[in-house]
Amino acid sequence: MAELSTIARPYADALFEAASDEQASLASWSDLLAELAQVAGLDSVREAMTDPRLDGPQRVELFEALIKTPLSAYARNFIELLVANGRLLLLPQIAEQFEALKNRHDGTAVAQITSAFALSDAQTQEIVAGLEKKFGLKLKPVVTVDASLIGGVRVVVGDQVLDTSVQAQLARMRDTLAA
């Protein structure tokens, strides 16, 4: 998977730079990329885009027809570039990296909070407030429930993981006892 993100990075960087240079709204590009990535991630679309009977212009036309949002000239050129380079199916990774660049530019990050039980809004806000102090960033929480944690929470912000779950504590105790 690291290979795909390495290939996708230059496209995300170039698109972010172009979106910043043309004074376009980064949010609108982010929304468009999310839609493009969602369509490119569909199995039927992946199958159609790898059909050897279609040439480049046909792939562009087919893909553009599947998109609800009208495409600007810049967006169409971007899709044509991806098709010409055989990288259209990397749109999910490109969108993910573009979003990370946008978040870094805005001074924000996504905090993936996984809890053993459903959290109330107040509990979520309390966790986010503490994490914002720790990381010095404005965080956007994405909360999920995973009963296998037994208790506590696991938080992922970027490449940092804070795991206070009972499952993690039991694993540490097991490792200590086995050593």
Automatic annotation (TrEMBL):
Membrane topology value: Peripheral membrane protein
Keyword Membrane in annotation: yes
One Gene Ontology term of the molecular function aspect: proton-transporting ATP synthase activity, rotational mechanism
TM helices/strands, residue ranges: none
GO cellular component: plasma membrane; proton-transporting ATP synthase complex
Record's keyword terms, sorted: ATP synthesis, Cell membrane, CF(1), Hydrogen ion transport, Ion transport, Membrane, Transport
Coiled-coil ranges per UniProt: none
Domain of life (superkingdom): Bacteria
Subcellular location, record wording: Cell membrane; Membrane
Keyword Metal-binding recorded: no
Main location: membrane
Family designation: Belongs to the ATPase delta chain family.
Entry-linked HAMAP family: ATP_synth_delta_bact
PANTHER family reported in the protein's UniProt record: ATP SYNTHASE DELTA CHAIN
General function of this protein: F(1)F(0) ATP synthase produces ATP from ADP in the presence of a proton or sodium gradient. F-type ATPases consist of two structural domains, F(1) containing the extramembraneous catalytic core and F(0) containing the membrane proton channel, linked together by a central stalk and a peripheral stalk. During catalysis, ATP synthesis in the catalytic domain of F(1) is coupled via a rotary mechanism of the central stalk subunits to proton translocation. This protein is part of the stalk that links CF(0) to CF(1). It either transmits conformational changes from CF(0) to CF(1) or is implicated in proton conduction.
Official protein name in the record: ATP synthase subunit delta
Highest classification ranks of the organism: Bacteria, Pseudomonadati, Pseudomonadota, Betaproteobacteria, Burkholderiales
